[in-house]
Amino acid sequence: MTPHRSDVRLSTVIMAHPRRRAAAEALGRAHPALAARVVTDPEPQGPPSALRTARLAWRSVPADATHHLVLQDDAVLSPHFADTVAALAAARPGDSVSLFTEWGSRTANAVRAAALLGHAWAPVVDDYLPSVALVLPAELARGFEEYATAKAAPDATDDVTLLDYLHDVDRVVPVAGPVDHANPPSLVGNDVMGPRSAACLATTGDPAGSVLPAMRAVPYFCWWEQLAVVYLRDPASPDGWRRVPAEEALEARGIARERVVASLRTALESVPHRESIHDRVSDVLLAEVWTTAYALGVVTRDLGGFPDLGRPAVREALATLAPGALRRVVPVRWLPRVGELLYPLVTAAVLRGAADAEAAGSGS
């Protein structure tokens, strides 16, 4: 029987560098129901390392806690967050529950597929564990310190070490995410990634709902190289995934590149604000964003259903695909507008990809 939220005894720690202690304390004051404690880097003069602070944060679990939540100091929490996180932990009591996944991650597209099919949860499919806001069962939280001491390399990151530690634990994210990211200047060199906002920030969701089935293909816009790719499940690869160009993955699915490109041209004929789109995004990048969204439609159809744009949280999830993809090449001040301009194309691509996958599957 699934525990009720009242059965969850949650302890909360906010991890911070001393330079951000004030922000961490302000976050705690804004959510008094969490009774959060602040822990800071024990060696602030040393080389930047989130893992040092994470080890301290994860071992700070009271004896009576059932679950432990670690927040990073730049997390932005939704209203009534304490109740929300208790409900989420109660729904997945033995799992690793990441409450934030960033809009340009592989897991973000798992969230989008889950939203399109009406699932409440998505699996983590990144090569790290999203840990801006992470809940673990208390015993797992207590074990991280010993694991990190024995296994982590000196230059390891906390999110990769957590993924390695939890390799045999179900790792999930709620489709309706209750946490955003404030995007302050990074202390560990992550500013080069551009802003990392939530994939699907939504105030309501059904924590008792289902989990998206295991994905064998994950569409992804590689924002380092500005390319549409697909990660294919491959046990022979070091992290279990093999990256291929999206064109190659779609060809293997029976969908020719010419069909994808033609569908973009057709969509552009009817999309509003075409000139504004071309003023903000190059044709090359537009084609890569289209291909990523198209592949998302194909994968969604292959996961067992036709994408439904009317489902809860779908608009929030799909509206972040283009900004998450283009955050390194579009000025930050233009990202919201670019997201609005490209949203009709993203939705058209998802539907076209699903329809073409259905046709290819039937042999037509």
Question: What is this structure's SSE topology?
Answer:
Blueprint: E1 10-16, H1 21-30, E2 37-40, H2 50-59, E3 67-72, E4 75-77, H3 81-91, E5 96-98, H4 106-117, E6 121-123, E7 133-137, H5 138-151, H6 158-165, E8 171-174, E9 179-181, E10 217-222, E11 227-233, E12 241-245, H7 246-252, H8 257-270, H9 274-280, H10 283-302, H11 314-319, H12 321-326, H13 335-362
State the gist of this model.
With 364 residues, the chain is of the alpha/beta class. The chain has helices spanning 21-30, 50-59, 81-91, 106-117, 138-151, 158-165, 246-252, 257-270, 274-280, 283-302, 314-319, 321-326, 335-362, and strands spanning 10-16, 37-40, 67-72, 75-77, 96-98, 121-123, 133-137, 171-174, 179-181, 217-222, 227-233, 241-245. A 7-stranded mixed beta sheet has the order 2-1-3-7-5-8-6, with helices on both faces.
Which labels suit this protein?
12 strands, 364 residues, three-stranded antiparallel beta sheet, alpha/beta, Spore Coat Polysaccharide Biosynthesis Protein SpsA, Chain A, globular, 15% strand
Into how many domains do the coordinates divide?
Answer: 2
Name of the CATH class of the largest domain:
Alpha Beta
Query: Which strands sit side by side, in order, in the main sheet?
Result: 2-1-3-7-5-8-6
Q: What's the count of strands?
A: 12
* CATH homologous superfamily title of the largest domain: Spore Coat Polysaccharide Biosynthesis Protein SpsA, Chain A
Element order: H for helix, E for strand:
EHEHEEHEHEEHHEEEEEHHHHHHH
| Architecture (CATH level 2) name of the largest domain | Alpha-Beta Complex
